[in-house]
Write a structure and sequence with these properties.
Distance between the termini: 10 Å
Largest sheet: 2 strands, antiparallel
Strand content: 5-15%
Helix content: 55-70%
Strand order of the largest sheet: 1-2
Number of domains: 1
Number of strands: 2
Shape: elongated
Number of helices: 2
Radius of gyration: 15 Å
Structural class: mainly alpha
């Protein structure tokens, strides 16, 4: 994993980029779950959304190892 990404001379931590990607992906998943009514099965929606975000972030960081 690269620890810093250079964007036009500005060094940005790679985790910041992965956080933005994970947030976008979890927002899409949340909308899909809301559309199909899957939140009826969830006890605490905010806690579930946070857990979903953490899981998606883990997947994104894991998959970043395979990027060139």
């Amino acid at each position: 994993m690269r620890y810093e990404i250079d964007i036009y001379g500005v060094l940005i931590p790679s985790l910041l980029l992965w956080l933005v990607v994970a947030y976008a992906a979890s927002a899409v998943l949340s909308r899909i779950m809301q559309r199909f009514g899957l939140y009826r099965l969830v006890w605490h929606r905010a806690l579930f959304n946070f857990a979903l975000f953490v899981c998606v972030l883990g997947v994104v960081v894991y998959l970043s190892e395979f990027l060139p």
